[in-house]
User: Fold this.
Amino acid sequence: MPERDLDVAEMPSLTPVSTMEPVDLVRADGGVPLTGKKARQGKLGVIGWLSISWLALVTLAAILAPILPIDDPNQVTASIARQPPGTDGHIFGGDGLGRDLFSRIIWGGRSSLLIGTLSVLLGLVLGGLLGLVAGYFRGRADGVLTGGFDVLLSFPQLILALTLVTVFASGEGVTATRRTVVLILALGVVSIPVLGRITRANTLTWTQREFVLAARALGAKQREIMFREVLPNVLPAMFSIALLGVAVVIVAEGGLSLLGVGTQLPRPSWGNIIAEGRSELRDSPHIVIIPTIIIFLTVFALNYLGDVVRARFDVRESAL
Amino acid sequence: MIRSRRRHVVHTAADYHQSGSRLLEVDDLKTHFVTPRGRVRAVDGVSITLDRGRTLGLVGESGCGKSVLSRSIMGLLPSTADRTGSITFAGERLDELGPEALRSYWGTQMSMVFQDPMTSLNPVMKIGRQITESLEVHTDLDRGQARETALALLRSVHIPEPERRLKQYPHELSGGMRQRVVIAVALACGPQLLFADEPTTALDVTVQAQILDLLNEQQRERHMAVVLVSHDLGVVAGRTHDIAVMYAGQIVEQAPTRTLFAEVRMPYTEALLRSVPRLENASHTRLAVIGGRPPDLIDPPKGCRFAARCPYVQDRCREEQPPLIEAETPGHLFRCWYPVGTDAGKEALERNLAAELPQAAAAVTGELAVEAS
Amino acid sequence: MEGPFVASTAMRGRWIRGAAAAVALALVVTACGGGGDDGGDSGSADADAGEVTPGGKVVYGLEAETADGWCLPEAQLAISGIQVARTIYDTLTRPNADGEYEPWLASAVEPNEDFTQWTITVRDGVTFHDGTPLDATVVKNNLDAYRGAYPGRSPQLFIFTFSNIASVDVVDPMTVMVTTKVPWTAFDAYLYGSGRVGMMAQAQLDDPVNCADNLIGTGPFVFDEWVPNQRFVATKNPDYWATDAEGRQLPYLDEIEYRPIVEVAQRVNALDSGDINAMHTSDPLTISDLQAQDESGEISLTESIDFGEVTYLMLNSSKPPFDNIKARQALAFAFNFDDYNAIRGKGILTRATGPFAPGNVGNLDETDLPGFDLEEAQRLVEEYEQETGQPLSFSYTTTQAESTVADAQFWQQAAEDAGMEVEIITVDQSTQIDAALAGDFEAIAWRNHPGGDPDEQYNWWQTGSPVNFGRFDDPDISRLLDEGRSNPDDDARVGIYEDLNRRFGEEVYNIWNYYTIWSVATAPDVHGVLGEGPTSADPFPGLAVGIPPAYLWVEQ
Amino acid sequence: MPVLLRRFIHLVVVLFCVTLFVALLTSMLPGDPVNSIAGFAPEEQKEQIREQLGLDDPIPVQYGRWLSDFVTGDLGSYWTVTGDRPVVDRVKDALPVSIQLMVYAQVLALVVAIPLGVATAYRAGSRFDRGSNFTAFGLLALPNFALALILAYYVGVQLGWLPVTGYVAPSEDFVEHLRRMAMPAIALAVGQIAVYMRLLRSDMIATLQEDFITMAKSKGVSPRRVLWRHALRPSSLTLLTVAGLNVGTLIGSAVVIEVIFSLPGLGSLLYESITSRQYIAFQSLVAIIAVGYVMLNFLVDVLYAVLDPRIRHARA
Assistant:
């Protein structure tokens, strides 16, 4: 009998390699996403494609704003002040100062999307990293980092952002771009502790799982375990919270605009359009309603796609 | 050991006698799963019967559908599952029952013991609560009586200091201990049928024997029917009345345990028997291996599903799927054109040996079937 | 719209539209003879309100809280603070229907021939709410406190305003003699001080700790309770010394409550929903909404620009680019008031030709202030750039309140259409005050100069005065101011201040925008908003410094 | 070292860092505090005020002075020329308002979000799930001040059900108190509902995939009971964390709501003190909120252990 080296794949599994039979693996066609049956298989489905096209539309419009055939967002014309949507040539009508609401919303997209995504990214990267370290190493590292989170968190977010903007981006010689950069940093700093603490909480539960102990037993370095073993498990939760964070930040910028420290006017953002339009709620509510719908569609699409993506990675099936 | 006091259960004692010893009858059960890549035919036409007080062993490699079968019978399937075929339990057609009616069977008529004790118990709920819960749901015992029953159950599964255990959490117990609790939970309402889905796979060997003895003991006392699911022939060999061997979603051989080991007909069963290490072998004996992999369950091969890996394979095997046919001893069915131990079988093997078929050579070198222990 | 020139602590939450309560730091409203025509509508007549029914309560929505309280000599009250002060305290004099000052708490206020000595006869039989009598000594102590000559009180603003007083002496128990350094024709108006110069009881005057929130006056209502940012409650003063024209005992109401509701939209909501039954606002867009509600009878609206303030763009004449008259004129030509009125006022604004509102002495229908002429503006911009070799660019400083920023963007657009470059600097309230004081601004949104007598503007426009924020140094204006202050002849003063007005038009030190409209909206069953004059039933028409609460009444 | 002592030290350290951070930040603010108090006073009087308030001292000295007062419970006083206005008086009135507002908003948000989270997790992917996610994001997208004004106008004015502004203490008239806190609490809570619901939903989905859920089901336990008794508790960790964190955000974003509904809470005090450069008051207010926050998160940690015994045992 020729000596055959054992091909591991052919070894009958006397002891279970994994508790799931292949059929389970096959059946485990995805967690339970937001969508209906089809998306349960991680497919996009109608709403998925709608979300993608909406996000593409909004982002493209924001990027191409300078070359799009739309009015100058800051052009004041008395005749269209507070005109309802659909007046000739102005699809969304005019805002309180007689500027074309449609172009202001497109240009507003630039600031809002930028601020929304970058500050949450900052929070995700820094906050996530610190949270991971705090949750994994515990002990003194955890104490120090949680202390740091507490310091930032005990400062009411809106007031912290207001102070940072007033100190670094108001007064003489402040350009709108600098104000937007400081806003991104301020809102980023504000979201670091939130994402940090959530990541820490998730990491805590995962580090108790056997496979982490097993990896450690196999002599893997701490850093490897953290990034290769724990992070992939914590990432889905962080990812969906980050997407939620984008929505919260875009709306928070509105609050800041109300306090006068949002995107520097006359540069528009969805937040400051709503802030400026709030006193016109009684007779021309469209100035507030339309940007709100735009924000709603964008954040809904973002979180919806987030779910579908997550459904692809999450392998287990609900048992209930 | 005191028998757990008869509980006041929805189904009166009369139901049992009237349906005689036949407890469970499954006819042409098919469970398919809707997945992105198509319909997975996990259980593809299975028919079995089980009498009260008897144990049926379900054996097969990982992915042969044995777990899915037991869950399908109980109805514990996710929403992507699509189940057909009839399931009759104590004279009642389960497959026609709505979710509420079916639920009244769970725990009281049939219950399940899962494989991994580490994850089968709710990590944040006290052991006591997890046992008394099913009593609360199904019976009208008050807290005190429920607590007494729980203590009795813990003692019946040989857990030391039951009072203290009630207040403890799962992570404070060892693997073996936890599996005992899982069994206690499963037996709380005195089910007539117990599915044990690889109950000992996650445990070390010494504890395995204790748990299996415990299961047998409980079965005898409660005159319970048990379906013991395992991939390990050794576990099934000594503890079951009948054995059904599953392969790729179908039963390929079924017989009383002793007959199966003595008069094996299905080449797959023979290969399984040969791959079990035996005490009398020298320590370095190479283990016999079944080459190849189980077939893809989305579009299984036309003929016999074991053909690709069968030493006895002939052209017919690849073309036509053999039906389950009766062997000499009654109750012994198998699904093969050139069964082991028959002339046709021998000739087929010679032909393959001559033709230098790889899996044929491997089959010859191993010892023959293991003795029923 | 308004660059509220304000004692900052008095303004709360000014980030909110319309809350920019200009403190209207008009120190004094001074009468000075007739001549002030009664221009501008003075709100709906209350005549047909039927017979007055005493009793009941009014809840009055204010646009801001007065966080620092009412220690009058030291306080810097905005209109909300003034309204409360006029509820608890009386002033020695009060303006009548023509904006002339007649004695009120004082029974007589007589100047000597050359206006260097004023004799104040204190009304007798008047007691403070704590029962102490009103006499010459208390009046003297009050006046000394205002001019910073009373131990224990340290006013900042009033020192400045009353610096022209040489001495205050008690002649007899009920008579006080005030001697001024320089003849002071408008001193009787300064005793009113836009309703700020109330007489405080001796106990409050000497209270080192609670002077701000332990209010004791002689006024129509007695202080009951003040919970900052919630409510200020005062109850009827049963033995108030004053009666109305028909001799009825004042005040009509049993109780009045002031509630600061900073967001103007919410103040209107509160009125419509019945939370409050009176409110004030100077926000043009809100006033135009209230006008609609007035027509439909849901509310009753009283509005007025008489004796009011003016909203304007103040230019810094001490540094480029606005040290050059061409630059100032260019910006004035670039400003299209009709567009501004349509967008920012829904058409209800009246263009301001000068700093004097209708009713004020010196008010003119026409001045040389440039009107909207885009070509002229562009021509001047080019001339400026050739002359100086610099592009005509400037910064526009404003607070963060949404309405002020909207105005900034309007001005920015107007200037850019004419070829100028504009940077909008939005700052919070404190920084804006610093910018004005330090002069580090080029153009700043502003609102000021209420009051009938132009002498009151002396300090804002006199060369070298620390509060001449625009820092213009105009010999003519300085001369006219001095002449106007001490010239006893009323007609001559009218000519002087009309010249002053024209001078502003020619030099364009400030670009006057519109006369600020003040309005008081009440529930339909609330009447007596304008009240009555000191000696006759005809009321003083102005609303810029609040209303006399004694005359408010609710149909019972 | 007993947990309590360790927690106390943690509180002290956090407080120290927060207030130091505030001192640094406020020192960099543009605008001169004295101008806010006595803008028009002549120069030498301003100098005298600056001297009196010690504004020319270096930052650490000023911070040290504030800290020594704060430690002894003296919150310092507003810088003012008219008499003395200790911060504690304003805080005494404002603190209960903020706490009530925050508690009502949190309770409202949780009472709506938890059942929604559980239901959408259970029937994930169903029309109900999509519907509730859709509305939740709709509510999240509308800034709370815009919602506040819409509520005030339509509910307050048009329907006249609720008073539009003002605050009434619960002791005075509890029903009126609730009526006045209803709209502000709703305006604040609505934004949180989407967040809480989504968090709970994703954690619940993960928990529902565990074996002990199948076990519970196999015991014949009803789906409702499985959801609430078995699945909810182990998956409420993230929700608890975020609810705990939200203390700061609620007080911060409450500024806007407080001003619109004229509720005299800490938020508007904070805003008022920062915009009028009252640094001492601002320090004390932030310190108080910091104490409240750290205390509350200590409670959250305790709740962790109660909710998940593994953590309790891992830590002991």
The longest helix of chain D spans residues 87-122. The interface with chain C takes residues 30-33, 35-42, 45, 80-85, 90, 93-94, 149, 152-153, 156-157, 160, 163-167, 259-262, 264, 268, 271-272, 275-277 of chain D (CB under 8 Å). The longest strand of chain D covers residues 77-78.
